[in-house]
Amino acid sequence: MRIIVLVKQVPATDNVKMDEKTGTMIRAGGDNVVNPTDENAVTEAVRLKKETGAEVVAVSMGPEAAQQALREAYAMGVDRCLLLSGRAFAGSDTIATARALAAAVQKAGPADLVLAGERATDGETGQTGPMVGALLGLPVVTYVQKLVLTGDSLELERIVEGGFERVVCPLPALVTVVKGINQPPIPPLHLKLRAKKLTIPVWGADDLDLPAAELGLGGSPTRVARIFSPKLSRATVWYRENGGREGLSALADWLTGEGLL
Amino acid sequence: MSQARVLVVAEDRVSTRGRVYTTEGVRRVNRVTYELLNRGRDLAGKLGAGVDVVLLGVALDDYTELIQRGADRVLVLSGPAGAVGPTPGQRARLLEQLIREEEPVVVIAAATTTGRTVMPLVAARLKTGLTADCTSLDIDPGDQALLQTRPAIGGNIMATIKTRTRPQMATVRPRSAPPAERDPARQGQVVERQYGEDLLVTPERLVEFIRDVTQEVDLEEADIVVAGGKGLGDRSGFVLVEKLAGVLGAAVGASRDAVELGWAGYPHQVGLSGKTVAPRLYLAVGISGKIQHLAGMQTARTIVAINNDPGAQIFQVADMGIVGDALELVPALIEKIAALKAAKG
Ligand SMILES: Cc1cc2nc3c(=O)[nH]c(=O)nc-3n(C[C@H](O)[C@H](O)[C@H](O)COP(=O)(O)OP(=O)(O)OC[C@H]3O[C@@H](n4cnc5c(N)ncnc54)[C@H](O)[C@@H]3O)c2cc1C
Ligand SMILES: Nc1ncnc2c1ncn2[C@@H]1O[C@H](COP(=O)(O)O)[C@@H](O)[C@H]1O
Question: Is the whole-model pTM more than 0.80?
Answer without folding.
Answer: yes
